[in-house]
Design goal:
single chain; 134 residues; alpha+beta; three-stranded antiparallel sheet; 3 strands; disordered N terminus
Length: 134
Amino acid sequence: FRSRKGGTSHSGSCLTFCPQDGSIQEDKRIRRLEVIGFEKRYDHEQNKFYVYVVEVERFDGETGLVFRRFSEFNELNQKLAAFKIRLPVFPGKKFLSRSHIREVSEKRQAALDRYMQETLAMPAVVSEAVPPYP
C-alpha cells in the first residue's frame, strides 16, 4: 500500500491510502510506518470525530504524516481482502461504550498500528499491492 500526502479528502473511489494522480512507477514505496497518535476534529456541522496520525517513511528517506479516520483503515482492509489471502486481524469497530471515546481511540491506535505493522511485513503481493477499485 502507498500513502497519499496531505489531508483526508478524497474523490471518487480511489483508495484513500494511495495517491490520486500517481502511478506505480511514480509512487514511493513505504519502508516504515507507525500510527503515532490521534486527534479530535470537527466536521462542518461541529460533529466530533477522531483521525489517527500515521508517520510514514519511504525508501528514498522522505518522511511525512498522514491523517486517517478509522473508516479509511477499514476501507484499506476491505480492498486488500479482495486479494483472497490471509490478512492480519483487523481491529473491531467497538472497544468500549461511546461514553469512553478517548479510551476507545487509544486502544484503536494501538490495534491499528499492530495491524499496519503486520500488513507492511507481509509479502510484496500485499505490502506493495495496488488494490482493485470498484
